[in-house]
Amino acid sequence: MSAQTLYLSILASSMALTESPDPAALASVELVTEYAFDSNVVAKVMAVDQKTLTTAADPLDNLVFKIGFNDKIDGSTITELKGRLYTGGGVEALEEQHADNFGYITSKLDFYGALDSQYDFFESVTTSYSASKAEAIKTALETMGALNELGAYRTKQVELAVPASTVTDLTPTELKNSLLDMRDRPRYLVTCDVASLPHIEALAEVMGKINCHVLLDIGNITDWQSAVALTETLSINDHRFWVFWNPNKSRPSNATTVLARKKWRPCVGDLLAQTLLRNARTNSSGIPPINRPVAGYDFPVAFRDMEKMAGVSLDEEAQNALASAGVNVVINERFEGGDRWIYGDALTQYDSKNSALRLTNSAEIETYTTNLVLSIVKKHLLKGMTSFVRDAQDECSRALDACVAAGLLVQPSELGGLYYLLQITPRADDPFSKADIKFSRRPEGCARQVFFEGTVTK
User: Fold this and answer.
1) For residue 456, what pLDDT is reported?
2) What's the CA gap between 350 and 358, in Å, rounded?
3) DSSP-H helix ranges across 50-188
4) What is the pLDDT of residues 163-187, one digit of tens each?
5) Which pLDDT band, with edges at 50, 70 and 90, does 255 fall under?
6) Which of 148, 151, 238, 307 is the most exposed place for a label (fewest CB within 10 A)?
7) Using one digit for the tens of pLDDT, what is the confidence trace for 57-109?
8) Sign of the C-alpha dihedral, residues 311, 313, 318, 322?
């Protein structure tokens, strides 16, 4: 979507938040954002009189405004701004006229538009008012119940509906370029959209270029045959592509009554959250425990009052077919001590009977160690060739030794007792400017099946 501009207008007896400026406004705040709002967002606006001295040129410098954008369903804060109004011109005018008073500049709401970092919520914030209307603005704030005295026990604020954004879906090319242009390369790309194969292919192309993972939820499907058929239609035979299916319904997470009806919901949001929490538990070397797949008993799905959707049958035939198609299903399993809803498998879309790359944790270890080696090698490029080979080999070996200690790599039979083999050598056809990297290792797997044989003896 293109940038959206909102105008907070303080009128003689009311306040409004619109997508166009109001010529009758006594004061206004222009907010430009690249983020989109739906119809469930409200803005809460208040001002606090700090009782500080002001100047004739800026008579409202004693009023501190707080503008919060909140989800009206659960009350959570989306973003918040706090600062004073300026008489006009935005941060450029502030910098020009008050270059020697940085504290004054940062006290203004306009300063939010000057931060210009990757994760700024607002691209620009511009406030404006006429000094001659300062008293009228204060009176208007008092009239509408938005002006607070300093230290007041009960605060007063005005709640305004935020206009819903008009969102235009990105084309596959725009989606691909947007992801590739990100400064921070994502490790996981998540989608619940199976309606557009070109968009899925665009994600797969990004996955191939930056060596990350794509997590696909195939949606609200009530029979396993359709789930298998849809997955096989995608035909993405890659260990970095994972498919999930939640054939269950549950109550909303914020439900406070049994009258909140159970509905289907995608599971990849929960899976991603648990994956990121797992990744945050790094060891002293900064290595996440990705040898443990996010599946099974230790990673239950915490949806409320879950139950299988009507018409869903997951008998042995269904589970075998889904596993063969590489679909990870949210199922209910009975364990010692009770039952849990879990991600019942840890399979990728890699088509193999016995390769480690058909397992999600092994696939993560493969991408993690590959990216680790490449990122270290890049640090040493443009050195002298002898220094490059020596320094890159040494640093990569230290990092991979840490991966071994963290349990990411296991000892293969083919490497003669080594956990990995990394060779960085100048290329034979151009030993002055090119080098070859050969990297062999065996990632940790995960136990998916057991074959039980029991006997009863005398």
Assistant:
1) 95
2) 5
3) 90-97, 102-106, 134-144, 172-180
4) 998 888 889 999 999 999 988 889 9
5) low
6) 151
7) 999 999 999 999 999 888 889 999 999 999 988 889 999 999 899 999 999 99
8) positive
For the CA atoms of 443, 216, 281, 360, the dihedral, rounded to the nearest 10 degrees, stands at -20
- Whole-model pTM: value is 0.83
57-64 CB contacts, 8 Å cutoff, 24+ apart = 57/87, 57/131, 58/86, 58/87, 58/131, 59/131, 59/134, 60/27, 60/84, 60/85, 60/129, 60/134, 60/137, 60/138, 61/107, 63/138, 63/141, 63/147
CA 94-45-20 angle, to 5 degrees, is 70
Can you give the pLDDT at residue 113? 78
Pairing of β 327-335 and β 241-245:
parallel
Can you tell me the distance from the alpha carbon of 270 to that of 303, in angstroms, rounded to the nearest whole number? 9
Name the percent of the chain lying above pLDDT 90. Answer: 81
Report whether 230 contacts 221 (CB < 8 A).
Answer: yes
CA distances 133 to 130, 148, 182, Å, are 5, 19, 44
CA distance 347 to 71: 36
Amino acid at 207: M
Tokens encoding 420: 């990995």
Residue 306 near residue 254 (C-beta atoms within 8 A): no
Residue whose C-alpha is closest to residue 410's, from 380, 439, 445: 445
Token look-up 């910098």 returns 95
Give me the residues paired with residue 47 across strands.
65, 147
Query: What stretch of H or E contains 209?
Result: helix 197-210
Kindly state the tokens that stand for 200: 């899925």
* CA 112 to each of CA 63, 105, 109, 145, 443: distance values in angstroms, whole numbers, following the listed order: 17, 10, 6, 25, 46
